[in-house]
């Protein structure tokens, strides 16, 4: 389905010339698109979804009144809707309206989407040229994601994405979906922060641990990803031979640097600044090693930045 064309209205200036009114009414376009889809699925428009759209337009109007404000289509808009459960039809009705918006931030925390709703959202965002080139932050915490593989098309299409929050879901229960998501983030050119906290991610799953470790190593090749949040999972439990569960504090000689594969991965990454693993049943020794390496990374980057600044000043 082609994207609706969002047009600015024309104003007549004091000199008689036409000027572009930067207060583009995204609300009208959103409402017409949403109403059309609701009619197609024979459902009512969600009042809270409408309120969120009004708030989005209000923010645009406020920004327009700032004399220093640049073109709104360049700045983009934010859509925030929290705590609303969507069925499949509700997702299919609402999300296509995002395609015509120059979204820079989408916050749907605690809106139950499930895997079906997440796939619908991912398809819309990955096929929208506006979303693909403008979206910076995506917040999908507590939306009921189990299979994370549907998010890979968003990672591929959203070239400017800087933050992905998919915490408080159940992504860890589908290891292969998590592995596909991790692979899609290996060399993302703008992704700075990822939150996978509280996702039932277990260290006893070889597929999961390998996927995360490979992602951490690959991310170290580019100085882009600065923070990974994996708090409140169970990465401290490792499954060894015979199906016996062994805590990470047990001495295991087949790791290169420490008693956990994520320690090995971090030692091969010199750019990650924050690797949050609180609440994972990891031993204090493992945490100390990780924190020491992260401190080295932060100190090294600070030194490099300082040297670069001095070099730039000297050239000037």
From TrEMBL:
Molecular function GO terms recorded: GTPase activator activity; small GTPase binding
Record key words, sorted: GTPase activation, Leucine-rich repeat, Repeat
Keyword Repeat attached: yes
GO biological process entries: nucleocytoplasmic transport
Keyword Transport in annotation: no
GO cellular component terms given for this protein: cytosol; nucleus; perinuclear region of cytoplasm
Protein name: Leucine-rich repeat protein (LRRP)
Species annotation: Trypanosoma cruzi
